[in-house]
UniProtKB/TrEMBL annotation:
Domain of life: Eukaryota
Gene3D superfamilies, A to Z: TolB, C-terminal domain
Organism annotation: Cyphellophora europaea (strain CBS 101466)
UniProt-recorded name of the protein: SMP-30/Gluconolactonase/LRE-like region domain-containing protein
Stored InterPro entries: 6-blade_b-propeller_TolB-like, Hetero-Diels-Alderase-like
Amino acid sequence: MFSDPILEPNILTTFPNGTWVENLSARAADGNFLATVLSAPEVYLLSSSGEFDPILIAEFPGYLGVLGIVELGHDVFYVAVGNYSTTAGTSTPGSWSVWEIDLNGLSRGGEAKHHWRDWKRDGQAKTKLIAELPDAGLLNGVAVLNPTAGTILVGDSLKGTVWSVNVRTGDAAVVIDDESMAPDADLSGGLAIGINGLSVSNGYLYYDNTNQVTFYRLPINETTGSASGPTELLIDQEFSNIFPDDFALDFEGNAWLACQYGHVAFLEGVAAGERLNITAVAGNATGLPHGLTAAKFGTTAEDLKRGSLYVTTNGDPFSYGSDNPAQGQFVRYDTAVLGFY
C-alpha cells in the first residue's frame, strides 16, 4: 500500500450539496457517460472532456433513487431503480425494479438524436419498465451476462443474491444465493451492504462485498448466470478500512476498486484466480475526493492513451443524514503513469 496518494484527481463536475452520484456507464456512441443518482431518481449525461454541464436525461417519479447502470445495445441502458434513503441509510424491500433508458429518440428535425446538444435542447430519453422485483431487498450493481439473449445480472446488496433479468421478456429470477454475498451491517457502521459491484468476464462473475471487505470470482453459466463451480476468494480484509463500492476490470485482468473512504485500490491479476495483495493508488487525503461510488474506464482514443479511469462520488456517505450533506463529483484518474500495464 502506498502511504501517499499517487494519482492526482481531475475533477470534471461537482454537483450541488446533497447529490449522491452512484454509478456510471460509458456511452459507446461518443465516450461520454451516463451517471445515476441515489439521492434522487435521476440519470445524467456527463461529459468525459468537460465540454458541457450535466444534462438530465431520465427521471423515475415515485422512486427515491437509481443505482446500477449498464449499456446493452446501441444507446440503450438498463438501470436498477428503487427506494433507498440516503439520509437514513436504509432500503425499502419490495420497491425495486429494472428500467430501460433508450437514447435512440428523434430530434425535432426528424433525424436520430445522438449528440449531447440534441439532449440539451429536446429533453429526456424514453424510459420503460422492464421488470418489477418485489422480492428484492436492495438492487445495486448491474452487469451484462448475455448480450445476444438480452440478459443482465443484478446484485442484491441486502439479501446477498444475484438476479438474472431478461430485458426483452421481463423474466427475472434469483440465480445465485451465496453467503459470500451476504451483508454484515455490524462491520460498516450500521449500513447493510453485501455484494456491491459486479462484472462478468471470461466465464466468471467478479464481485466485491462492501461490509466484509472481500473480493471474489465465481465461475458461472454464461447463458443462465447460475454458478458452475465454487467461489474463489481473492482478497479478504487485506486493507480493512477501504469500504469498497464498485470496481472496473481492465484489459490486463486487473481490478480497480472505488472505495467510500476515498481510495482507488488496485488489485493486480484478478483473472489469475489467486489470492492477491491490494494497493492504494489514490485518495484518502485532505482535499481529495471522498465517497467513491463507481469506476469505469474511458473508451476514447485519448482515454486509452492516458489509462483514464472515471469515478463518481457522493463526497461522504455518512454526511447525508446531517444538515450539511456532501456533494457528489465526476472525477478522472489517469492510471497509465503507474506503469502497471
